[in-house]
Amino acid sequence: MFGSSQSFILRPPSRTPSLLSLHRKNELEPQASSSQLSSPDPLDSRLAGMGLYSPQLSQSTRSGSFSSISTATSSAGERPNGLIRHRHRQHIYARVHQARVKQDRQKLAAEFRLRAYETQRRYGYQSSFADFESYLTYYDQVKSAVLDDSNKALEDGPLKRALSIARASMQEYGILPHHPPTQLTFCLEPFLARRRPLNFDTFALDDLQKKWKQIDVGLEEDRKPKIPPLPKVLPPEDEAAVKKILEKRGQIAKYARESVDDKDIIRLRPAQWLNDEIINFYGAMILGRSEASKENVPKTNGKTAGGPMKGRGAPLNAHYFSSFFWPKLTGDGYDKGRLAKWTKKIDVFSKDVILIAVNHSNAHWTAAAINFRRKRLESYDSMGMAKDTVFTQLRKYLDAEHRNKKKAPFDFTGWEDYAPDEITPQQENGYDCGVFTCQFLEALSRGEEMFRFTQKDMPYLRRRMIWEIGNTTLRDD
C-alpha cells in the first residue's frame, strides 16, 4: 500500500448534509401534502444562498434531521439576513484594566486639584482645600445655569486663550472629559500652558491697559473716605441672643409680608445655602429702612445734610423686588407675568435705585440694581459670570415699564452696563452666594461704591444676619 504511486487527498468533513443523504431520507419518509410543500423552508433558502439546491423535505424530515441546527439557531438568535449572531466577549482582564485606569485618573486628578489649590493660595486664596473642591464643583453648576455658551464666561483675550490651552493639555493626558471643569483648568493654567515669549499684539496691549486702569482705579479709591471695616465678632450679649434665636421653634420673626421660621433660620449656619425666605426677609428690612429714613441724601465726603455719619452713606430712596420678580420677568415676560401690578402704587422712575435679588435657575444668587442716580444697569456676582443676561432683561423691563406707565419708550441715552469685577468680592466656596447677595443689596441701598466685606467675613456676617432677622433691625456698625 505504501509502495503504490496512488496519492490520497485528505478532505475536512463537510459541515452541511450531503444532497444524496437528503434525497434518500426524502424517499423513506411519506410524501407531504401540497400545502406543506408550497411554503419555502428557511433552511432551503439558506442552502440556495450557498449555491446548494435540495428537494423539498417533509415535515418529519425538517423536525428530525436538523433539530440540533434549529435549536442552535433559535437559541443563538438570527439576524434579518439569516446569519447567526456572534457574541463579542470582553477580555478576561478588561474589567481589571478599566478599574485600574479609573483609579489612576482619579489619583492624578486629585494631584492636579492639590497643585491648583497651592497655586491659588499663592495668589491670595484663604479658604480650606475642602472649600476649594466645593468651589470647583459649584463653578461648573453655576456656569451651566447662568450661561448658554461656555465661552461667555470669559471675554476674548489672553485669558480665554489660556483656558483653551489648559483644556487641551488635560484632554491630551486623559485627566478630564471632553468638557472639564472650567475653573479647574483655569487654575491649572500656570503649569499646564507652554511657556512662550510674549508677542506684542493687541491682546497683550489690551491686557496691559486693563492693568493700568485697575491701578488708576485703586489710586482713585485711596483718595476717597475709607469705609470702616467690619467687626470680627458680635458683642457677647448679641452672640448670646443669636444662640437663643437658633434654639427657637416655629416662627422666628415677621416683617411686613415676610416671615422666617426655624427651618429657614438654620440656613444661616455655616456651609448652608440661603433660601427665598431669608433673602426676601432681608430685602424687606432694607426696603423698610429706606421708607423710614427721613433724609435720602447721598453720601458726600463722609457726611450728610443731617450731620456726620459713621463712615457710611445714608439710606437712599430705594425699592426692593423680591426673588420671585426675576422668574416672572425671564420666564413669563412683562405682560404675561403681570409685572405692571408690582408697581401699581409706586413710581420706580422716581427712586434712586431699584434692588433685585436674582436666582439663576435655582443654582446661584446674585444682586442686580437699576441705578437711576448714576444711569447704570448694575450686576454684582460673587462668581463673576452673570452679566449679559442680567443687562438684557433689565433693559427689557425698563422699556416695558416706561411704555406702560409713561406711554413712551424709555430713553437709554447715557446709560451704561456696570459690573465692576475688580471691586466685587468673590466667594471661595460653593455655598456663600446668598450671603454675598444680601450684603451687596445692603451696601447698594446706601449708595456705597465699595464693599467692605470679603470671603473671610462670611462666618461673622452669617451670625450678624441671624441677629438682624431675629430683631428685625439692620445693624449700622
TrEMBL record:
| Name of one Pfam family that matches | Peptidase_C48
Protein's UniProt keywords contain Hydrolase: yes
Question: Where is coiled-coil annotated?
Answer: none
UniProt xrefs under PROSITE patterns: ULP_PROTEASE
The residue ranges of the Ubiquitin-like protease family profile domain are: 258-444
Q: Where is this region: Disordered?
A: 27-80
Full protein name: Ubiquitin-like protease family profile domain-containing protein
> Per the UniProt entry, what species is this protein from, by scientific name?
Leucocoprinus leucothites
Lineage of origin: Eukaryota, Fungi, Dikarya, Basidiomycota, Agaricomycotina
